[in-house]
Amino acid sequence: MVWDLVYVPMRREEKDVRNEVGIWIAIFVVIWISLLYGGQLELSLPHDGNEAETDDPAQVNSGVVDTSQDDLDAADPAQAFLGEWICGDTLITISRQEEGHYLCVVDRMENEQTTTLWEYECDFDGYTLTGASTGIKTRITRDENGEETQREVLYDDGYGIFQIEESGEMIWSDFKEMAGFEQRFVKG
Q1: From CA 4, how far away is CA 157, in angstroms rounded?
Q2: Mean pLDDT to the nearest integer, 157-167
Q3: What pLDDT shows up at residue 25?
Q4: Domain regions of the chain by residue span
Q5: What are the tens digits of pLDDT across the range 78-137?
Q6: What pTM was computed for the model?
Q7: Which of 81, 149, 139 has the alpha carbon at shortest distance from 110?
Q8: What are the pLDDT digits (tens) for 45-58?
Q9: CB burial class (10 A; 0-12, 13-18, 19+) of residue 15?
Q10: Judging by beta carbons within 10 Å of its beta carbon (0-12, 13-18, 19+), is residue 44 exposed, middle or buried?
Q11: SS3 annotation, the chain
């Protein structure tokens, strides 16, 4: 019959590969859309035209040229990501580690005794901070005195992207378990 030619049951390994391919396709689409959208974003405030311009670092460092925070952000767009970002019971702290590398720590209080941490070592691509397969999710349990009683690593192959929208809000997208979707973080 025709149905017998079309329907072929898949083995478990084939289903796993198919699911993994679907996840990678979804990640590709999100990154592609992010880059398309991100190409139109300005991560720094517009200049008012009163700043003196120079290519001489000696003048900038000597105080001859007034370099505003806007100029620094334009010179290093990743600067806009640094600091603390808040959304409800979730805090994201982003710090610079070394040239082009950043540590993004997501700290979510689940209840009075349990905190969940996601830690990503990210690279800046010009628009987003991306931690590809570097995400570590850890659940921390504390007793009633606040002392840590248990620390359990749940996985260490997470994938996360941090992106600042035109509104100035930051979006965290975790592709391992879709944590953080639809949350908008404001700088604290």
Answers
A1: 39
A2: 93
A3: 64
A4: 9-44+70-187
A5: 889 999 999 999 999 999 988 778 999 999 999 889 999 999 999 998 889 998 888 999
A6: 0.60
A7: 139
A8: 444 444 444 444 44
A9: exposed
A10: middle
A11: CHHHHHCCCCCHHHHHHHHHHHHHHHHHHHHHHHHHHHCCCCCCCCCCCCCCCCCCHHHHHHCCCCCCHHHHHHHCHHHHHCEEEEECCEEEEEEEEECCEEEEEEEEECCCCEEEEEEEEEEECCCEEEEEEEEEEEEEEECCCCCEEEEEEEEEEEEEEEEECCCCCEEEEECCCCCCCCCEEEEC
The residue whose two tokens read 């979804």 is: 26
Check residue 44 and give its pLDDT. Answer: 40
CB 83 within 8 A of CB 162: no
List the structure tokens of 103.
């540590």
Contact yes or no for 180/170 (Cβ under 8 A): no
Q: How many CB atoms lie within 10 A of CB 165?
A: 12
- Separation in Å, CA 95 to CA 17, 26, 106, 122, 156: 36, 28, 12, 10, 20
